[in-house]
Fold these 3 entries.
Entry 1:
Amino acid sequence: MMWHHRLGHMFKQGLKVLMERNLLPGLKEVSLTFCEHCVISKQHKLKFARVTTKGKHILDLIHFNVWESLEISMEGAKYFVSFIDDYSRRLWVYPIKTKSSVFSQFKEFKAQVELETGRKIKCLRTDNGGEYVDGEFLAFCKQEGIVRQFSVPHTPQQNGVAERMNRTLLERIRAMLRIVETLMEMWKGKLVDYFSLHLFGCPVYVMYNSQERTKLDPKSRKCIFLGYADNVKGYRLWDPTAHKVIVSRNVVFAENELQNEQTNNSTTTSIIIMHIQD
């Protein structure tokens, strides 16, 4: 141990190399015992084993996380709650205004997916945030027979699926904002219909309601496509004139118009007319 101390707490293999070259007088064998100074000064985090097992059925395990957005949405949401089914990797994301809404959002999500699939959530994996360990939340899970799994504090790797999804969401949002894909086959057992998928941010022409115009007024105005409305058969659109989000089904998509603006190498715009079936 003396040469270990003299050489600034050199590691065992280094001492062996010097000993074999006869550079350390009197040292015939390298045998290092426990060195508290080395542990205190050199300790590193333990490596994480790669997880190769997954849930055997949908809803066997749900990864659950809350992350704070850098921007407040137009409807005042500052946080996003994400749920990921471990088996199918299907993702649900809900905007919320405060962390106190996490419990109620989970109950809403639970009711939705259990009714849709006919199965029960068996296990819920989260970190140790206060919104997850609330007494009412824990009591509800116990009553519903949901097993809770928590990661060690300051160890996001143990909730890696949810943490990695946060990164993926942010990367996709950045890409979408600079100018959508789902994993539904395993969930519903059939191929995904991509027919109604459109470019985020592309121009759309929205038809005015008859009450909004006279016979000689234009029949439509130009808006921006944001996504798909919940619980109604319509599209969510941004009206730059009225400065608000509207929902309509009578729209004409001009996706190529957005692409042409980026490439500057096309002179015509292909108009795709889409209507949602009644």
Entry 2:
Amino acid sequence: MTRPQSLKPGDTVAILSPASAVDPALIDGAVKALQSRGFNTKVMAHATGRKGTYSASAGERLDDMRSALSDPAVKAILCSRGGYGAVDMLGRLIPKPVWLIGFSDISALHALWQSQGIMSIHGSMARHLAEFPADDPANQALFQILCHGTQPAYSFTTHPLSRQGSVRGQMIGGNLAVLAGLISTPYDMLKPGRILVIEDIAEPIYKVERILHQLRLNGVLENLSGLLVGQFTEYRGDSNYTDMERMIADMTAPYGYPVALGAPFGHIDGNLPFVEGAEVTLNVSDSITTITPA
């Protein structure tokens, strides 16, 4: 895969809103955070706009992305927030090797970058840069990736329902509902042989279970190299399962690969960034789970 060029002081980071509208104050805060690190910033024309729930029309959002990609000074693109609408760009845009940063609905754009063999950064966006200090672990890790191009090493306590094991493979994934909507398209990231990362927000347990059944039936779930289950937030248990982790553990019980539940990815303040497409080693022991660059 193509790894975008590492950033150095004086390089430009474009900020745009490819999906839902965002509070302009968060973009202002992100600009200050980036400039404090020595980067120039370029806020695209419709980044702070609003058209219904979107930041702008589909055409205007696409124009912002094309303008950012066509500017040779721009070395990274920070998406201001997710929400809904990034899928409008798929099939209408050819990316180039610059770092794309975002998560949630931005998973659709990660899928676009992946379709062209380009690495990108699944990580927090304008709000986190604006509201958290420079020494925040997620912010520090983001700038490590941007400036050095390397996937940071992470460790976290092993969840009681995790399955132990060690595997090396390509780490890839994002918001499960968004990625499930791209199955059987040219932007399908849910494929066998990978260490898959999944997370989501406000999705009922049965809907996530339905997606996992889809992956079971198309042969992906059985043939993963490993599974990193990030944070599933803002959902309610039901009479079948009180929590998402138990359902996922049951769905993956027939398989032999390592499964790490409770990974620090998703709609949480401690959403650590990872490089889509990076080769890593996932090790799940009885007490500690580690992700290390291979």
Entry 3:
Amino acid sequence: MDAELLTVDRGHVRTFTLNRPKRLNALSTALQYELADRLIEADLDESVRVVVVTGSGDRAFCPGIDLKELRSAPSGVWRGPYAQPRKALWEVLFEVSKPTIAALNGLAVGGGFELALACDLVVGVSGVSVGLPEAKLGLAASFGSAQLSRRVPYGVACDILFTGRLRPLDELVQWGLVQKVVGRGQLEREVSELAATIAANAPLSVRRMKATMAKGADLPLMSAVRLGAGPDPYISKDRHEGVAAFLEKRSPRWTGK
């Protein structure tokens, strides 16, 4: 039996591939738990600087939770992903302290689209369908409902949530939710180049920037500036290395310390 989650390291980039092609990479409970655990490991691994999440095959990135599994659950046992004894996958992904990239190779709806919303950057194949159809299924899109209006204008979020309509990924570029759409044959190269560019920068600086944006978003400007969220690059060895490398006209050798 093939593994439901594939993990590949290239340099300082760790890529997780959802690998349930017969179910369009739907999120079984087991896959949710495994990916959440692997994300926590990646966040603690100092050799990892960027995390990428994608799906196997050409048809789907992820259609969300496995509805066949959900239907088979005893009545009253499952009360939603945020009523469980452990953190939900989307919460874990959102809280990763390192840059995260969603590489949308195909359909991304429901909890699958919410995985993209939990990532910092989104790159996908032009024309693939995305959306949150939970209103058509009697579900809640809890993460999407809370996060979407933080990423796009309120009216756009309402349209996506209330109608449940799927739309081409390309429509979301204008709102900044998607950074780039590419041809199918270009996705892996585009994401690899983006991830490698980020990974080549000082890891403590990048983590500090992400923490400041995440934790300072609702604060007054100077409160956010002075928050001191995340690691402090100003007192790091990498700060000395970065300045020295610039003055000596060479590539820096980051240690993450």
